[in-house]
TrEMBL record:
Domain of life: Eukaryota
Residue ranges of domain F-box in the record: 42-82
Pfam family, any one: FBA_3
InterPro entries, A to Z: F-box-assoc_dom_typ3 (IPR013187), F-box-assoc_interact_dom (IPR017451), F-box-like_dom_sf (IPR036047), F-box_dom (IPR001810)
Gene responsible for this protein: LOC130498840
Name of the featured protein: F-box protein At1g30790-like
Length: 427
């Protein structure tokens, strides 16, 4: 009993109490806590408010304080409050130890972002590793979806929470799968396209696509699978990006004239249906697998580098923003970069954008690690001031010790996702 009280005392002392804002009675209650008297802690509302301001790692420790705290921290209401609470923005970096070799392993790191224009470095810490998983080479990257990261390796789909270090895997019937989140019913769903290009080759008269929707429940279980979602035939060629309850991805639609039409497929996660095929200017999807979809101020946007053919770099880009989903209206902004960024295949040479930070800076990051134990850099471009800064991310496989310990070899693909929000939710 004494040891348990000492353990609880140590945990409770991690709570940052602002005693100056408390009344006399509350201060005495807080004082009694630090003395190991657990019969009085804080008024319930203040207790909840205090807990929402703590880092995830502290909350994971507090789950063992009492059944009351366990129930509170794991409750859906508290999870939602914690996610919505104003906290520093974070980034997530994910990379594999080898694309072509064995054994495969996925590394998930994260760190706190900064909006300081003079900042030249950030620090990433290793959150978790996932065995037997690798990033596809120069094809798809990962996106943050309501505090979770999704990735796939063939038909195996993996969802992980870097904050809680939980990950789940499940089998999909086809390799093309995207993760979405329904904010109305607080539910994650995975959309899989079942109809492939091979099906169309074997059956040229094929006019419809079939999809499977996998509904995920708490405890990492698949609640149900639905294969009743159909649409006109299309061929996808970008990863899916979830924004405000809708999954978007680039695709090609073949019409009766045999001339492909470029569109963005819009899938309504809550209603589980293909909402529309959004017509798209030719330039927006010209890069196909290298098209950079981003969430720009709550809207779908695409970053298109100004380089053609075999160009090895780009010194500017066009930012296409979907202004009106129903009217299929796009706007375009053109920017010149202070210095050119590489756009060639090879170790750390191709720069793409996967989003912005809270300051609105557009972030460019490499698609592969720059080499064995080499510094990892990302570039932050401010569209208002037209300034760009190079930021080193310390901790992303930039030491010889890291490469040796984990056996990193060959080409190591990497994905950099800004504006990741910490979540304490468990699937």
């Amino acid at each position: 009993m004494v040891k348990r009280k000492e353990h609880e005392k140590g945990i409770l002392e991690e709570i940052p109490l602002d005693l100056k804002k408390m009344d006399t009675v509350t201060r005495s209650h807080a004082k009694s806590v630090t003395q190991g008297k657990l019969h009085v802690v804080l008024p319930f509302d203040m207790e909840v408010e205090t807990l929402t301001r703590l880092p995830v790692k502290s909350l994971m420790k507090f789950l063992c304080v009492s059944k009351t705290w366990y129930s509170l921290i794991r409750s859906q209401r508290f999870v939602a409050s914690y996610y919505a609470a104003a906290k520093p923005s974070r980034f997530v970096a994910a990379f594999t130890n080898s694309v072509f070799g064995e054994p495969k392993r996925l590394f998930i790191l994260s760190g706190e972002e900064t909006c300081c224009s003079s900042s030249s470095s950030l620090v990433a810490k290793l959150d978790m590793t996932i065995p037997l998983v690798t990033l596809p080479f120069n094809v798809y990257k990962y996106f943050s979806v309501h505090g979770f990261m999704a990735c796939k390796d063939g038909t195996t789909f993996i969802i992980c929470n870097p904050s809680t270090r939980q990950f789940i895997t499940f089998h999909c019937k086809a390799p093309w799968t995207s993760l979405g989140y329904d904010p109305v019913h607080d539910q994650f769903k995975a959309l899989t396209l079942l109809t492939s290009e091979i099906d169309h080759i074997h059956n040229p008269s094929l006019t419809m696509c079939k999809h499977e929707v996998i509904r995920l429940g708490r405890g990492g279980v698949v609640v149900s699978r639905s294969t009743q979602v159909t649409s006109p035939y299309y061929l996808p060629f970008t990863a899916g990006l979830c924004i405000n309850g809708f999954i978007y991805y680039g695709a090609s639609v073949t019409s009766h004239t045999s001339i492909p039409t470029l569109v963005f497929v819009c899938f309504d996660v809550r209603k589980e249906r293909i909402l529309s095929f959004i017509t798209t200017p030719q330039e927006v999807l010209v890069w196909k697998g290298y098209t950079s979809l981003i969430d720009y101020k709550g809207k779908l946007a695409v970053v298109v580098p100004n380089c053609l053919g075999s160009a090895s770099s780009f010194d500017g880009f066009n930012l296409w923003i979907l202004e009106d989903v129903t009217k299929h209206e796009w706007s375009r902004q053109s920017f010149e970069l202070p210095l050119p960024l590489p756009f060639t295949l090879g170790m750390g040479k191709r720069m793409i954008s996967q989003g912005t930070n809270k300051a609105g800076e557009i972030i460019f990051s490499p698609t592969t690690l720059p080499g064995r134990a080499q510094p990892f850099y990302v570039f932050y471009f401010n569209p208002d001031t037209k300034n760009m800064r190079r930021v080193r991310i310390h901790g992303v496989a930039d030491t010889e010790e890291f490469w040796s310990r984990y056996g990193l070899t060959d080409v190591c693909c990497v994905s950099f996702s800004p504006q990741h929000a910490d979540s304490i939710a468990f699937l």
